[in-house]
């Protein structure tokens, strides 16, 4: 045990050095995006503060943990400070490109939602979200992640505005939505983000997504960008075989002979290796861009659970010959974006920002993604050097390490705690009085 502890102690030293380097690089990358040094300093505090050990993460709790006398500095940073958050997001994407140089990158698009209590929050409406497991009042955002064998980092995000919300001028003005931001479907948002990522220098060869991102226009756009793709489709998705017959994905895979299914390992879990049965069939491409030859390899891939027999379907295209094992690897990379959502929500407050306006949402999500990116890049650098008989350093373990050795612990002296208790209760009393007066006015005939 002592030997393992000594090995971990060495790993801690390495992790601290890598964390300091990556965080400094991230703050240096976005330094010119701030008009004033005070705002830049507050942003650095907020990014590290998001990773501190607090019960919930919002401007009140973070300000108390950081030792501020009130939440005003953080609220000003999110809403009114002169800060080019769009440029900052691009600079962080360039940093990720440099850190992942030489690695094969798969661009993965997926959305996640946060439950809300009011339609006054920008983009909030009744809509489906897997995060809340159904239809409810929530905000939904589309994210784009750069995924490699060792790292998964979100490099862009776009808030989805439902059609009725995007057309409501009164709500748009109240939330500060820019005039140029109009309604766009989730596939259209992902196309724009992929295009921007490639222009920023992301060296990717593949795009991956689930059924939401399997439309023909998106697949055609990926081919125009020179990317292969693997996108999930439903069992009713219609494909055309080599003979020109149109049939559903289930019918197509149903014709595959039993001995043509191959069992392949798709990763490792706490209970051992994950293995599924895989098969594929050639299909005709229906998404050739204008002026492009109908070349490349177009196939339908099926994954069958070895115990339940449940089958999932994926439509794939590659610009050159490709093996089933390569397609399976890309398909498995798509699942890793779920890990980035879990990391951002658990440790960086991605879903906890109590913000209602456009600027506030953009900046809160940006700071959360920067914190998650620095974590992921640090873990990816330290992980391969894990001592024998120990799993690589994970992001949750890295957070525990940082809280113990690097990050400033939350301020909890008696005078500060009493000050914040009085501040919260005074503020809540004033808010309660305002609500009561408003309801009384609304109740008058």
Automatic annotation (TrEMBL):
Pfam families in the cross-refs: DDE_5
Annotated ranges, domain Transposase IS701-like DDE: 31-247
Annotated InterPro entries: IS701-like, IS701-like_DDE_dom, RNaseH-like_sf
SUPFAM superfamilies for this protein: Ribonuclease H-like
Database matches in PANTHER family: TRANSPOSASE
Protein's name according to its UniProt entry: Transposase
Organism: Streptomyces pluripotens
